[in-house]
Specification:
alpha/beta; about 150 residues; Rossmann fold; about 15% strand; globular
């Protein structure tokens, strides 16, 4: 990262902030290579990150401390980071009236299935988390490649 280059703030939203948005927050940190700072929140946060989301991230070599389920109002009030991009990753959050975000960010909707809603045996549930991770990884990789970050020549 060149000194003076802007780091873009990206917020991922879903309803519960326990799985999809947490996975996306982790992914943007890794794939963004220092050009993006990821955040996540929910309209009705569960209050805890889903254990299978944390297990998957750990298995893929991500540090998992610091992830927490939180409300989106944390990013709409005074002292919130100025956002450059806001992505909803679930259809419920996309249909809700969102707060006014500081910084007038670019917004988009990426409908991704909720792995936390998968029922059945543990292998099927783990597969759902891996599938959601892969879908988010593909979208975020393309996003990171598509955003050109101006470089400061100094």
């Amino acid at each position: 990262m060149t000194r003076g280059s802007k780091v873009y703030n990206v917020l991922f939203l879903c309803t519960g902030n326990s799985a999809r948005s947490i996975l996306a927050e982790a992914l943007i940190g890794r794939l963004g290579e220092g050009r993006f700072r990821g955040f996540s929140a929910g309209s009705h946060p569960k209050g805890a990150v889903h254990p299978l989301a944390l297990e998957l991230l750990q298995s893929l070599g991500y540090p998992t401390e610091g992830y927490r389920s939180k409300g989106w109002e944390e990013f709409a009030g005074p002292g919130a980071p100025e956002l450059d991009f806001v992505f909803t990753v679930c259809d419920n959050a996309a249909a809700e009236v969102c707060p006014v975000w500081p910084g007038s960010p670019v917004t988009a909707h990426w409908g991704v299935p909720d792995p936390a809603a998968t029922e059945g045996e543990e292998p099927a549930r783990r597969n759902a988390f891996r599938s959601t991770y892969r879908e988010l990884e593909n979208r975020i990789r393309l996003f990171c490649e598509g955003v050109s970050v101006p470089r400061n020549p100094l």
